Amino acid sequence: AQKVTQAQTEISVVEKEDVTLDCVYETRDTTYYLFWYKQPPSGELVFLIRRNSFDEQNEISGRYSWNFQKSTSSFNFTITASQVVDSAVYFCALSEAGSGYSTLTFGKGTMLLVSP
Amino acid sequence: SQTIHQWPATLVQPVGSPLSLECTVEGTSNPNLYWYRQAAGRGLQLLFYSVGIGQISSEVPQNLSASRPQDRQFILSSKKLLLSDSGFYLCAWSEQPGDEQFFGPGTRLTVL
A61 and chain B: CB distance < 8 Å anywhere? Predict the structure, then answer.
């Protein structure tokens, strides 16, 4: 069973629009970490955020914000006032206590295209 | 600050040839190290991880192997490449399991 689902394969927006990238996860562990990574065209994955399963507070970092909802097993990512430089593939990932946190399970990614 | 290097950046190899990709981390000690492959379609697949010198865990059985001869060096190898080995190979490190992983620039491998 897929543990991390990013149902949106590709999203296209125009600059300055807000956009939300969805992430739904599945785990039997009560302790786990969730992550978001950005992969620009250059290919290197850039770490954005790590969230502990016990911390459901939403987080904001500049134009980025994250909404963690344990009740719906979701960890959604919103970019406010998108810019062309936000164009990239975004990955959500899960690390579980049951595996000793040794493995990071990625979703298939969402490609975000921001046009001027 | 910590940095992670991978080489080569790109590689074109014939089917049946050997492979050696190298990853090194600077600025940290005893990191956890990881090899991922990203095939066409964007999904990342964990291939191997290592918590210390000589300690390798394999996630997916295949014709690839990994070794960690030094604390901050992680090598991905194959004796005979297959067409299906083509992809983008990423090395990553973390301080501890569960911490955020930091990725290298990757190696784009094409097997012809």
Answer: no
B83 SS3 class: helix
| Sequence-ordered list of residues with C-beta below 8 angstroms from that of B72, at least 6 positions apart, any chain | B24, B25, B26, B28, B29, B31
Say how far apart CA B85 and CA A28 lie, in whole Å.
32
Dig out the tokens for B32 from the structure.
């956890």
Concatenate the DSSP letters of all residues of A59-106 into one string.
Answer: EEETTEEEEEEGGGTEEEEEESS--GGG-EEEEEEEEEGGGTT---EE
Summarize pLDDT for A70-106 with one digit per residue, the tens: 999 999 999 999 999 999 999 999 998 877 777 889 9
Is A100 an interface residue toward B (CB < 8 Å)? yes
Of B49, B96, B103, the CB nearest to A103: B49
Which residues in chain B have Cβ-Cβ distances shorter than 8 Å to A35?
A: 100
A10-59 pLDDT per residue, tens: 999 999 999 999 999 999 998 999 999 999 998 899 999 999 999 888 88
B101, closest residue in chain A (CA to CA): A47
